[in-house]
Every structure is written in C-alpha cells, then in structure tokens.
Amino acid sequence: MNALTKEMGKWLITSVALAGLTACGGDSDSSLEDVTDVVDTGTTDTTDQVVDSQGVTSLKVNAASYTDWVFVSLTEGKVLELTAEEAETSTDWQLALRRTAIKVNGGDSGSGNVSVALADAQDDFYNGDGSANPSVFMNADADIEEAALLVAYDTSTLSYVQDSNEPALTDWYVYDFMTHQISADTSVGYLIRHADGATYSKLFIDAASYTGMTVRYETQAAGTSQFAGDEETFSVEFGEDETLVCLDFDTVQSMDCAADGWELQYEVDLSARAINLWTNGGVFGTGNGAVFGAIDAEALAGYTSATVINTANIASHYSQDSSTGLFAEQSWYAYNLGGNHKLWPNFRTYVVNTDSSTEGSTQFALQISNYYSLEDSGSPELRFIELATDGE
User: Fold this and answer.
1) Does the pTM exceed 0.70?
2) How many domains does the chain have?
3) In sequence order, which residues have a C-beta less than 8 Å from that of residue 21 and are 6 or more positions away?
4) Which range of residues forms the domain containing residue 159?
5) Do 212 and 351 belong to one domain?
6) pLDDT tens across 80-100, in order?
7) Of 247, 345, 376, 389, which is least surrounded by CB within 10 A?
C-alpha cells in the first residue's frame, strides 16, 4: 500500500469523509440487478431461435433470476440446460446472462477460451461528455440497427478481452522484493460483512504467508449496532496441493470452501500469480459478504460499530467482489432516460471469438436488442450471426 492510499484510509474515518459517503459507491448503486421498478413478474420460458432473411439469429432469453446464470451457446443458437457446477468445466457455452449482466466463458468466468471485442461503439448514442443522448436511444429502430451485424469487420484490428475477477478487499499484504515473500500489512484493517448479510466484524490480519494466515476480529451480532464480546484470533493453513482455504468467523475455524457460510476465502495460486482474499458473495460463494476499507489500524481499533460511525450509517457503503469484462466496461444499455425507469439498448456490436487459442476459430457478431423480449424485465434478446472466415 502506498502512502497516499494509507492517508486516504485515515481520511475516511473522519466525520467529513463519512458525510461525503452519502454520495458515493458501494454495492448499493453499482448494478441494476437491485432495481425494483422493473422487477420480473412472471417471465415465460426462453423461446426457440429465429433466423431472419439476412441470416441473423434472434434468441430471447429468460435471465430474470437475480442469483442464477443462464448459459447460452451461440454455435447451437440456444440456452443450455447446465447447472452452475456443470458450467464451471463446460466449454459448450459462450455467454452467460443474469438480468443485465453478461459474462464470457473465458478468463476468470469459465474454463473455455472465449473472448470478446467491441466492433461498433455506437458513439452517436452518446454526447461529447459520454452521457447518453435520450433522443437517440428512444428513437432508435431495432431493424435499422441490425445492419451493423452484417458489416465485414476486419477482426485482426479488434482488441479481444476475457473476463477477470476483482476482489473488494485489497492492499492487505506487502511483497518483499528481496526475499520474494509476502507478509501482512498490519498498519490497516477492515470492516467485514458476514455471509449472512447481517453480522459484521472489524478485522485485522496479523500474519500472512504463502501457506496460511492469522486473523483477529471482533464481531457485531446481527440485529445490533455495536461490537460486543471477546476478540477472536485463529490461524489457517493450506492443505497439501491446495490453493484455497476458507475462514468461518462464526465458528472460529477453517471450513470447506464448497460449503456455505464462510466469511473469507484465502487464495494463493503462484502458478496463476494469484494472491487474493475474497468475501462470500459477488464472485465466490452464495452469501452477501462485503468489505469496507482499508482503514488505519489504530483508528479502526477504536471503532465501536461496523454500521454507524459518528452518527453516519455506512451499512450501504460496503463493497462486494466483482467480475469485470467488456460487457461491463462497454455497456449495452442506458437506464432511466428522461426519468423513465426502463432500460434502453444502444445496439453496440460485439464480436465473440469462441476459441481465442485457435487461429481461424468461429466468431460471431452480436447485439443485445431488447431487455423486455418476453414482456418482462430480465429477458434480453440476443441477435447474432457467424462471421465469414478467410476464404469464405
């Protein structure tokens, strides 16, 4: 952690910083998945694919669940019946959808080698400052915009990316360039929201290495607003050939990462250059865990609550781990234009490479043309067409 980051951590604990928190992030405003104005009210099943006279396939997808991903094969033009566990090792799917979110089967999101590039950014849908132009969005004609799928794109000029996972808990260790070892940064600590979404702890990492770590924490029970009880300390170690170990603050011990209820997942996979701490929720786990910090350790020691500080309620300002990719960075929609709580597509055209490790692999031009294709929210309509390869 650099000096500026530490100073910012100290600044955050002042009353001025807490007042400013009312206008900033956390997991409360970063996703439309929590929007209640457009919740699903009974979306029907996914329809069969439809191919128009131009050879463009349309597929309406029921992705209304707030928790479960729907896996799509562009090569087969259909939704696949895969469980989350099956999808982890399957290379049959190229895209996964969950309401507004889209991930690809490549990088941190899947075992495949799928990558995606932006072929047509639809810059005319946006003003010079990057804000959405409501008039363009609301008057766009889906049939006219389909023409972008039929362009002969030079795919050699496109920049393809895969998905990556980002932990919300950062800056917790120090790397020694002389010994090539890591150690805990004991100058900082964190506020942790447990997997149950209602219990909290203030956390200090006292020791960290490639083989395990030691943590110390004090807990604020669900339904309360104050830390209470004794401070707990325990250590965890990796088993033989293991790269993950999970910490359960409630039972003060390690647990199987495949089980529910853990608070932190410690990952050390040197072959993948991965050293991370993940909370239970967002990327890994089925809980509602999150983090606030880093915070200066001396200041954090004086905290009496994880949710109310200097009369300011910070419960909504915890951050969850996130999965990032091109569909998040180059979004396919705008929301709440003109005060209308609806989602509007921008008809950006993406190129999906089904196997970036193989030259000449199948590629598709893709648009998301509707968010209400099955009459309710959470039902995106995919339009796509296979691109011609060299010699075709």
Assistant:
1) no
2) 2
3) 312, 314, 317
4) 47-163+325-386
5) no
6) 999 988 999 999 999 999 999
7) 389
